[in-house]
User: Fold these one by one.
Assistant:
Number 1:
Amino acid sequence: MSNLRNELTFGEHLADKIAGFAGILFLWVALNTFILLSSPFDPYPYILLNLVLSALAAIQAPVIIMSQNRQEERDRMNAEHDYRVNLNAEMEIHRLHKKLDHLLIKQGERLLENSENSSGTDGRAGQKNSVRPTVSLPDLRIHSSIYP
């Protein structure tokens, strides 16, 4: 964002300053109404003020639009950066999910092997148990709405 600020031309800096200009209306009305009660230079209907404000509005409109377009460009750049960061984080989370799935499956296989090895004999001398233990592994995959 600082790069964009440094790349602004003189006209763009001036447009930003003019777009931020406010408060002159209240000063004009206060000066004419309360301070110069005896002889105001622009009496109540404020015709001169209306003329100045109309000219100012005609000058400020394109300047304000240019300033808004630059702000929109900055917002677009920030949104693009946020998107890239979120995409990288999502890919890293996906990789972590795959690692966890792999570890859980390997752990389940080891548990099954240990269970089969420990229950292979029923305590009688060398006779194997004909009934195999039924240990079922739960579905160890982590399901997500983002990843299939």
Number 2:
Amino acid sequence: MLTTQTPRRPAETERVSVRYAVSLQLHYRVKSKPGPVEGFGQTIMMSSQDIVFVPSDGLKLGMNAEIVLDWPRLRDGWIHLQLVLGVTITGNHGVVEAQIVTYTLRTCEPTEPGRESEP
């Protein structure tokens, strides 16, 4: 099952979304002219509009990337979920800041009910 959404940008009079401290492993992928860039990283903070993370290497300002995070909670106690983000890199000063353009929550191969698989 796929659910794809485009985050709504707040009007100038609305509050900007709050960033939450979230520590999750991630994998990113970028298609670029010199060749594809792939790597792993660790999230630091997330909001409904952006994500801040420490990448392994290769991300530059303005790149469009796909970030995949294994969601920590199982759906119905046994179905793994992944959060897939389409982002634009907006800052890279040791940690990367990226604006979320699209997001999809997708299901993965289920495990046996009542039994979580190893990460």
Number 3:
Amino acid sequence: MPQGLPEDPADVFDELEGYIQVLLGHADPPVDSPYLALQEVATAYLSRAYEISILINRGETEGRIKRGSTYYLLRTRSLRDFIEMARKLADLGSRRLSQEVLLTQQRRDSGEH
């Protein structure tokens, strides 16, 4: 996963597009687990999106990123939508994991393996 804010905003759009493809199941996740993949990947991607947002905000505060610039529009549009999607998918992954833990416990309690 990249660090920092690339010079070219198009690189961030490409990065987010790659994450979207994984979250929507169009590409394989970097984690090979049917239960942890969604939660772990969505949480990692969400953290990266927050990092990008923080860096853009810092650039705005310091005057390096102007209102109406590509990075400004990225933060207020595409990045905001991505953060919302990743947050919901991280929550969904957490619920799936909780459900699997409960099912596993039920199987153990009933003597199934």
